[in-house]
Amino acid sequence: MNAIEKAQLANQVQTDVSLISFLSVINVFFIGALLPQFNSYDVSVRIPISFLIVSTFALIFSALILSNATSRINEGDIEETEKHLGWGYAISEYLGVFLLVLSVPVVMSIVTADLYLRVVTFIAAILGIGIYQFGGFSLLSRHFSKSNMVFSILVVLFGTVLFFSQIFNFYFTFISILFLLFLIILTILAPLKSFQ
Questions:
Q1: pLDDT digits (tens, 9 = 90+) for 121-164
Q2: Among 31, 32, 103, 19, which residue's Cα sits nearest to residue 59?
Q3: What's the whole-number average pLDDT of the chain?
Q4: CB contact burial 108-126 (16+ within 10 A = b; e otherwise)
Q5: Has this prediction a pTM greater than 0.70?
Q6: From CA 105, how far away is CA 167, in angstroms rounded?
């Protein structure tokens, strides 16, 4: 990499770290609003709060990994830079962003019993994640180009099933565990060159 390319990549990483840090703040806000009542919640409420906590830590650690990539960029260590970027972006996307966005409609069921607000939040989250996924903006299209459509459908499907399984109290814990395992597997496979 020449000096201009290094500077451009370092600037992009810094921008991404800023965005990821902002998303962490959003998570902390949600958690802070919900945590004082944690002991009074049943498992269908504790799981989305747990997802937000996992998402927060995923965003924090991905920001740390990405910010450490800057020193690798400046050193010109391409292999280590790619490793940092691969893991940092995978963790932020799959365990950070996906858990945050798909938890919000489920968390909204905690905050309000108003059906209109719950449905609007669900539709906004599912449409947003759908456009993000199927529009090719997601990292899935870069990491899993051959199976992107299948994984994208699964992400949207999990978000939909999570929402309705919580409302109807139908296998919510089981579906939540499957969803989390699915995201963990995506996170582990994404940075591996053999799956890209």
A1: 999 999 999 999 888 888 888 778 778 788 889 999 999 999 99
A2: 19
A3: 88
A4: bbbeeeeeeebeebbeebb
A5: yes
A6: 11
Residues 6+ apart with CB under 8 A from 105: 118, 121, 122, 125, 126, 159, 162, 163
Give the pLDDT confidence of 100-130 residue by residue, as tens digits. Answer: 999 999 888 777 889 899 999 999 999 999 9
Is 176 in contact with 49 (CB distance < 8 Å)? no
* Residue 161 burial (C-beta neighbours within 10 Å; 0-12, 13-18, 19+): middle
167 with 136: CB under 8 angstroms?
no
User: In angstroms, rounded to a whole number, what is the distance separating the alpha carbons of residues 180 and 184?
Assistant: 6
Tokens linked to 168: 């109807």
Start-to-end CA span in the chain (Å): 22
DSSP string of 60-80?
HHHHHHHHHHHHHHHHT-HHH
Domain ranges of the chain: 3-195
- Decide if 83 contacts 148 (C-beta within 8 A): no
Q: What gap in Å lies between CA 57 and CA 78, rounded to an integer? A: 27
Instruction: Scan for tokens 């919510």, then name that residue.
Output: 172
